[in-house]
Amino acid sequence: MKLAAIENPRSRQEELGQFLTATPVADFMASMFGPLPRTVRLLDAGAGAGSLTAAFVSRCCEKLDGVRAIEVTLYELDGEILDALSETMRGCEHRCADAGIRFTFIIHSADFIQEMSARLAGDLFGTHPPAFDVAIANPPYRKIGTDSAERRALRSVGVETSNLYTGFIAIIQRLLVPGGQLVGITPRSFCNGPYFRPFREDFLSHLELRRLHVFESRQAAFRDDSVLQENIIFHAVKGRHQPSELIISSSSGEHGDGITETVFPFAEIVHPHDREKFIHIPSTASHATAKETMDGLSSSLASLGVTVSTGRVVDFRLKDALRKEPERGTVPLLYPCHFNGGTVHWPKLEARKPNAILDNDETRPWLVPSGVYLLTKRFTSKEERRRLVACLFDPDQVKTKWVGFENHLNYFHTCGHGLERTLAVGLYAFLNSTVVDQYFRRFSGHTQVNATDLRTLAYPDRDTLQAMGRDMKTLDLSQDEIDQLVTKHLHACR
Fold first, then answer.
1. Distances from the Cα of 250 to the Cαs of 12, 338, 484, in angstroms?
2. Which of 16, 201, 256, 459 makes an SS bond possible with 299, Cβ 3.0 to 4.6 Å?
3. Is there a single domain that holds both residue 456 and residue 373?
4. Do 114 and 171 sit in the same domain of this protein?
5. Does a structural domain hold residue 30?
6. What distance separates the 2 farthest-apart alpha carbons in the chain?
7. Residue 413 maps to which CATH number?
8. Distances (CA, A) of 478 to 388, 394, 432, 437
9. Is 314 found in the same domain as 192?
10. 276 and 311 inside one domain
11. In a domain, 3, yes or no
């Protein structure tokens, strides 16, 4: 069945948060559904040109597994794509007619979140929300502001989230009948981080995960759109009891390449006692090895007497206090650009960022007293080998009484003051190790490292970290040397 052609300029895609599903990805998603009822009520919210529904129809027509009728409800807000969507649906009609399946469809050119939130909340008098047996979704991906119409609509039905895609999924699951199935392709960012915690709790309370699929390439799913967000596909069933195990699969994303599948206990994907409900997705052997190593660690940052916080200085709020070069009355202001290997290189006058901030009554609450601090980048570029990039701030190298850490940094401290040096160096070695990086990638599919993510990690005990710190004579070690040092001490503490 040929899909209708559609042109969608990049600027319009970004405005709508819309990225169309390639046919091979749509076909793979349709293949993930389990047994279907004889009459299937299908929801395709954010339908685009209809590739997901077309793939689902093809699956039903080819499998001939008892489906006798398909009733499709489609939502698409972009008026410029509606003709292509209608043409695709007419193709589905012909395909189903040839297979002896009754096919009907209705296209709503309306805002899915606004309309369905109102119906779920009972705001539309006498209009009950529809019910669906199956949903297939590539929801729009776009941040939504705290006071936006979408955010208010979602709150009216008990959904708190900061992105359209999670809002779509939350509404869709509310429209499924018990046992109804959902296959969706979304960014992986909901799997961790504090902003998506309410969504994870909602998702895991109402949907039973059956399968998660990851792509080995960050660009694989939406190559033509230059999307760098890491994406996953999930299959879930409406219900309140998670399975004892589920399938994790992966592929390169290239057409025709093989898919690897592994069955994991559900408790390894969402740890039973994790209050954050992080979703871990091991996709390589090294991820599994990293989990085994990290499971052997029992210390938390709190038990170590250490805290991690986000840098206090939000530069645009203190713009008048920033200085390109240090001058009398200023103190160092550190950004990720000041990372130089394992230590801070300051000042960096060739950088575009300021190097200093005034020390006065206005700025002092956002500064910290000088000391030994471990810093990590909150955002890493896609080119960097590691998601976790740690660096030591050494007061012997940067002489100052106070220092400012910009908001794109996390900093480890003890009650707002610096760390004991050997402990800081031990944490530096541990966080820069490959085993921690691989473990971190199990639950983080994007380049952001939140302070919450760092708090949830397990750490070696204080004695082991201090032993690592004493053994690390210089911070300028290769990755292999750091890994060997960390492995030696982790084995010794078992």
1. 31, 37, 29
2. 459
3. yes
4. yes
5. yes
6. 83
7. 3.90.220
8. 15, 20, 10, 15
9. no
10. no
11. no
| Residue 427 falls inside a structural domain | yes
Task: Indicate whether 5 belongs to any domain.
Answer: no
Distances (CA, A) of 193 to 73, 190, 268, 444: 33, 7, 18, 8
CATH number for position 190: 3.40.50.150
> Tell me, what amino acid is at 333?
L
- Whether 363 and 457 map to the same domain: the answer is yes
Number of domain units in the chain: 2
In the DSSP assignment, the letter for residue 108 is E
What is the dihedral sign for C-alpha 135, 140, 142, 146? negative
Per-residue confidence in pLDDT tens, the chain, 494 aa: 555 554 554 444 445 445 577 888 999 999 999 999 999 999 999 999 999 999 999 999 998 788 999 999 999 999 999 999 999 999 999 999 999 999 999 999 999 999 999 999 887 665 789 999 999 999 999 999 888 999 999 999 999 999 999 999 999 999 999 999 999 999 988 998 888 999 999 999 999 999 999 886 545 444 444 444 689 999 999 999 999 999 999 887 666 667 888 888 999 899 888 888 989 887 665 676 788 888 889 899 999 999 999 999 999 999 999 999 999 999 999 999 999 888 999 999 999 999 999 999 999 999 999 999 999 998 876 556 777 889 999 999 999 999 999 999 999 999 999 999 999 999 999 999 999 988 887 766 556 788 988 998 999 999 999 999 999 999 989 999 999 999 999 987 76
Single pTM value for the model: 0.70
